[in-house]
Amino acid sequence: MVASGVVKRYGPLVAVDDVSLSVRRGEFFGILGPNGAGKTTLLEIIEGLRKPDAGTVTVLGLPSWPRDQRLLGRIGVQLQASSFFERLTAGEQLRTFCALYGRPASRATELLELVGLQDKAGVRAEKLSGGQAQRLSIACALVHDPEVVFLDEPTGALDPQARRNLWDLLRAINTRGATVVLTTHSMEEAQTLCDRVAILDGGRVLQLGTPAELIRALDAPVRISLAPGVLSGDGARELVGPVDAEVVVEQDGAGTALVTRRPAPVLAALARADALTGLQVQGANLEDVFLALTGREYRA
User: How far apart are CA 155 and CA 173, in angstroms?
Assistant: First the structure.
């Protein structure tokens, strides 16, 4: 998939501003950004649901706009807000999709089990919870074994158990060779699943790379938290005084913490003092990168 110079305007608002990126075959790619960053608009342009004002997008070597019947059978799309056929049960929804895509009805049963809805097969779609409807929407996107799967905030309405199970499902889809492109607000989700991510704000790509690359580039300090009672603040300062590393000792209600960009000699000193019990080491993560790039102010 290749997007080149994509622009989308709504009056004076530039929702997508000259975005260029490529996604490799078989890659798990994340599009991240705060509310209003242009994620969904960009994804809908890539899917062929919206016409760009400028630029081009190709998916599997074919233009995504105007919509091409040859492409529609090779991609799967799960929208942020999904609609189902009225008055049909979860099982009937999937069997309808199977018929539309020329797949056997048995595929519906397989997908219900895959997304953990086998016990809801006879429940009408409008009676499903938000998380259950989300899983049904994803199952509908997978009916025809698409080569590329587009998911717009797929785990937004899911509880922790359902979210983890869906992660396992998405990993399995990707492992079988499908390209997966998703938008998400969950930095943990992106860091866990994605080979590469693009961070958007104001319709522009601010950073693009692997989560590990972006985290390393942030050059953030490591926080080493000691278990309560292991060392006082003064004891920690005395211990790390001779260490060849710039260390800030912090104390709060949870105990003593050592903050440094060179954790190895600090950890070695703590080991020599037998002060490793209950220790926690926390480095930067993708959320830190996200906040450094997009700021902390509330978005509408």
Answer: 16
Pick the CATH number of 2-210 from 3.90.180.10, 3.40.50.300, 3.40.50.1000, 3.40.1160.10: 3.40.50.300
pLDDT in single tens digits along all 300 residues of the chain: 999 999 999 999 999 999 999 999 999 999 999 989 999 999 999 999 999 999 999 999 999 999 888 998 999 999 887 789 989 999 999 999 999 999 999 999 999 998 889 999 999 999 998 889 988 999 999 999 999 999 999 887 788 888 888 899 899 899 999 999 999 989 999 999 999 999 999 999 999 999 999 999 998 999 999 988 888 888 989 998 888 778 999 987 778 999 999 999 999 999 999 999 899 999 999 999 999 999 877 665
Of the CA atoms within 13 Å of residue 76, those in its CB half-sphere come to 26
Residue spans per domain, the chain: 2-210, 221-283
Q: Could you name the CATH architecture of 221-283? A: 2-Layer Sandwich (3.30)
pTM summary value: 0.87
Q: Please name the residues in contact with 89: beta carbons below 8 A apart, sequence gap of 6 or more.
A: 121, 122, 123, 124, 125
